Amino acid sequence: MNDAGSHHDFDTWQAVAASGTLLDRVAAEKSRTPALLERWRNEFGAELVHIALELCEARRRLVLKWPEASGWIADRSGAEQASSALAATYKANQLRKRGVIRVTDLMCGIGGDTAAFHRAGLEAHAIDHDPFRVRCAAHNTGCAFTEQDIRNHVDDGSFVHLDPPRRDASGKRRHQWQDLLPDPAVLRELQTSVAQGVYKLSPGTDPDEPDLESCHLEWLSEKGRLTQCLAWWGDPPSDERSVVRLDDGWMFRGVPTPDLTHRGHFGAYLIRADPLLERSGLQWTYARSCSSLESVCPGLGLLTADTLPKETGLEVWEVEEVLPWREKKLKAAIRSRDGGEVVVHTRGRAVDPDQAAASLRGDGPNKIHLWCVRVGTPRLGIIVKRPT
């Protein structure tokens, strides 16, 4: 497997974490000048200072998503790739609902998901080919661990959670199934040899990937950002997909359906389906479950309505004015509303939002929200506000 891993020595990192002296100084000092760094290197050695700096940064990132992770050992890359407590706990709860007792966390990284499985009362076993990361997982979770290549995994009847690394040794992200390591052939073999499991994949995963056709796909989001696509295997075949907004627990499940009838223009409200619905291809299915929603035009992906929708999975704007996308007219409309800062929203790269926002900025005190979209060929500027 062409994945060199972390190249770190766990014993050295553990010694730095345990000693306290250097780590306390690094954590306490926010202004790390070149002169200060040089003094630390002279006192403790360049390698230990480098470890302390990276460990402090990794912990700073970790506690934002794992509040109890202030004592964990992790490098920065491992911390960035670890599941949040919210996502990991959701998966652990799903396993409990399925009656799972034992779970093997393959390619466990620093143990974010392993920790949630253990905390939920599951018998968790952490496995990774990277000796540093798997010992981080054992330290961070207190679970049993094995340093092992996934290709040598032998099914022991436990549920498998598999997190293929989504970055290569240079840090470049891998978004698609075919780019993952180990290669898709190894992953396909796992599906046939293990009765039940779940892949943790990029939210950008192609939902029509043939290797995943027997999996139930589920997308997760936090704070408006898509974070994971889960591909569950071992369940009865189904065309359904599901989405979960972890912040408030909103979820939707359905089968993708074609676009709605196109109205050709905007009504009283401009509506965007939750990004989860768009990514999963469920936006039209969800729209059909709501009352009085219509599509605007082919390829735009926006909805409209004449009455205010109350459903949770929608971002709703009240339309104030629709104008041709001409700077003079737009500036006049912004000026008439005592506009200052302009926030530009767009679809299909109809405009550079940052450039347009700077060009249209006014002198007034009010923030203006402006959509730029193409309905057919012409570009339209749509001034909107949040419904009251």
What does this structure look like?
The protein is α/β, with parallel strands linked by helices and 388 residues long. It has 3 domains: 10-79; 81-253, Vaccinia Virus protein VP39 (Rossmann fold, 3-Layer(aba) Sandwich); 269-385. It is 33% helix and 24% strand. It is built from 13 helices and 16 strands. The protein has helices at 10-19, 21-28, 34-44, 46-65, 76-81, 85-97, 112-119, 131-141, 184-193, 275-280, 283-289, 327-336, 353-360, and strands spanning 102-106, 123-128, 144-147, 159-162, 197-201, 216-222, 225-233, 241-245, 250-254, 269-273, 294-295, 303-305, 314-324, 339-346, 366-374, 379-385. Strands 3-2-1-4-5-7-6-8-9 form a 9-stranded mixed sheet. Strands 11-12-10-13-16-15-14 form a 7-stranded mixed sheet. Helix 1 (10-19) crosses helix 4 (46-65) and helix 3 packs across helix 4. It is globular, with a radius of gyration of 25 Å. It starts with 9 loop residues before the first helix and ends with a strand. The model has no long low-confidence stretch (mean pLDDT 93).
